[in-house]
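Narrative summary of target 7.
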Amino acid sequence: MLKVIKAVRFTAGRKKMKKTYFFVMVLVGLSAFLLFGLTVQGAPVKFISIATGGTGGTYYVIGGGMGKLIEKYVPGVKVSVESTAASTENCRLVASKRVKFAIVMPDSAYFAYNGGREFGDKKYPNIRGVMAGHTSTMHFIVRTKSGIKSLADLRGKKVALAAPGSPSAFIAEAALEAYGLTKKDYKPTLLTYAEQANALRDDTIDMACIFAGVPAAAALDISSTHDVTFLGVGKEEIRKVTEKHPYWTAGVIKAGTYKGQTVDIPTFNSPAMLITSDDVDEETVYAVAKAIL
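Modeled conformation, tokenized:
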């Protein structure tokens, strides 16, 4: 009987040891997995964040593409793509070192560095430019039946601008100013690009101002269903605007880009740009730029 009891105790002890051993091995394996997840061939993983824009916008899509290229071609790097309120917020995020990189419009970067406009007296001298990206083009669109032939004809009219402080609003205001129109001379309304297309379709605005890559989805939308006219900007007005605002350049919407558009449309361009801060090491900046290019 005593032998039986000892055998039972011995068997129970062995089972307990096996469970303990198994538990220890699981912990060791998990630790190894976590350690491996934070290293690449013995080197620590470097985490990089890229501030972009809204999840439904171009910046977020481009940032995602950048992230994939960086992870593919830069060993030991993991990228987090952050959805933000775009340029103005992105400049502040980079300057405060809350993200490593960000996609912004050059005018926002200019005023973030020098102060003024949406940044007021605040300056962020630690931001640095890395590279230029895709180009956005200003589309001034009116219904053909409106009889509006020039930006000068917008006096007293309803002009759709994007969100306050957006590049679209600033460029539209500057272009109208070049034609002698102040904000008191027309009726601004704040609408998204999709809302502008719908409002133009419903005749609740007189002009849409869409600042996006060509072809712009909202411009394709309205031009495919209604007769619209794309207003060009005169050479003298372009000169006035670009001299005063050197971060914008002359651009053109090529003939045939949109339905019914038979001539080139002179307008404004502005490339997006990737920025970082002066505390990000040169090796990282070079590796990121090389991977993207």
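The chain has three domains: 2-37, 43-126+278-292, 135-272.
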